[in-house]
Amino acid sequence: MNMYSFLGALESGLLFGLVALGTLLTFRILNFPDITVEGSFPLGAAVAATLISHDINPFVATGCAALAGAAAGSITIYMNVRLRILHILAGILVSVALYSVNLRVMGRPNTPLLGQDTVFSFLSHLPLPSEWAVPVALLVGMTVLVLLLNRFLQSEVGLAMRATGANERMAAANGVNTDRMKWLGLALGNALVAVGGALFAQTQGAADVNMGVGVIVIGFAAVIGGAALMPQRTMLLALISAVIGAVVYKLIVSLALSFDGFGITPSDLNIVTALLVAFALVAPDTKLFKRGRSRTALKKVQS
């Protein structure tokens, strides 16, 4: 892997870190396997690309993409809580419906952004090499976002949301409005995913109606893989591990696709993804990981 491939994988991993954070909120904190992200990711891209192509400020367009993602998550939780539709089925129904919505938003299967100003256009004025500018900006933005999310999840509302996911009945018995916490979590999670889609479209120069295929798998791989790589003692570490999981996932995929010895081609991406997710699920129970954890615990006792 050369430097350009590494920076490309790092940039893509940081962008999908937003998907990982959204998946962490819904899947790990709220215990809600949300499939809506397969539709909210391209929805954010479609909304942002359409607005930018109509000369709307790219920051405003990205904000509108976040609102659209929050609306998609709100519909899913409404179907689950009010209409009593199973959470997975509700997410599938909304993501399927969003395919048609995205076509309506763009008016065609894809919207190019070539020659348009994006949220990354101002980076050309910074004294940084062009290939480093976007990854550095994303790393700074992701650091700020993780700190803000950690602060939110430590607040009274955030603790109520975590309690809802940990034990819904107990939370309700203590006066927590669990339905409202679910709505807030899914709206926030899908808003993050939609922003990820909006930024991904702006870095790739186009939004496509099919760009959400497999996004949920990447989100799960990042969250599960990050948990296998890092301890989850605090909420801050859990947030950081999700972002690191997304970056490591993209780096491994890029490394696998660039290594000619395996004969892997870009068409084998889904096989690589499935193997990575399976490894992330199995790895924590292997002897190697258990031995490493035992040594870490022993060092703590000795210290």
Automatic annotation (TrEMBL):
It is found in: Cell membrane. CDD domains: TM_PBP1_branched-chain-AA_like. It is a multi-pass membrane protein. It comes from the Bacteria. The chain crosses the membrane at residues 12-30, 59-78, 85-105, 132-153, 183-203, 209-229, 236-257, 269-289. Pfam families: BPD_transp_2. InterPro entries: ABC_transp_permease (IPR001851). Keywords: Cell membrane, Membrane, Transmembrane, Transmembrane helix. GO terms for molecular function: transmembrane transporter activity. The keyword Cell membrane applies. This is ABC transporter permease. It comes from Noviherbaspirillum cavernae.
